[in-house]
Amino acid sequence: MFRISPDKVETMQQMPWETPIYRNRHGRGTRTPMFGTRLPRYRTRSGMFDDMLVAQIRRLNGAWPELIAPVQFAVEDVPPSDPAPWEDVPHLGSQSFPAGHGIPPRIVLYRMPLQSHARNRMDLQFAIRDEVVSRLAEIYGRRPEEIDPDWGM
C-alpha cells in the first residue's frame, strides 16, 4: 500500500507561481555561472593545473606503464611549512614518498609554487613535466633522462 502524507499532498496541489523560490540576498534572482561551462574562463587555475598533470601522467603512461601504474599522484596548494627532520632543504615544487609497508609510492606536486614561478601556460606545463619525471626517477633510482629524454629542456 502506498501512502502520501497530508503535507506532501498540500505541496503537490500548489500552483507553480505559489511555490517559494530561492532568491539571493538582494532579491535579484538565483545565481548562475557567469561563463558557460564549455568556455575556457569557466575553468579555475587549480582545475587547469590538474588537467596539465593528468596530461603528463597519460603521456608517461604510454611510454612507461609499469612505472606509472603503481604510483599515486596528488596535488596540494602549498608545501608544509615545517620540513621533515631528515630534510636539509625543503622541496618547494614537489615531493616523493617511497613505497613501504603496503603503501604505494606517492608523488605530491605543490600547485602554488609551480604556478608562481611559471611565466605562461607552456612554462607551467614544462615545470610539471620536469617535476613528475624527476620524482619518478628519484623513486625508481634512475636518471631522469632515461624516463623522458626531453627532461630539463
UniProtKB/TrEMBL annotation:
Pfam families: Zincin_1. Gene3D superfamilies: 3.30.2010.20. Transmembrane segments: none annotated. CDD domains: MMP_TTHA0227_like_1. InterPro entries: Zincin_1, Zincin_1_sf. This is Metallopeptidase family protein.
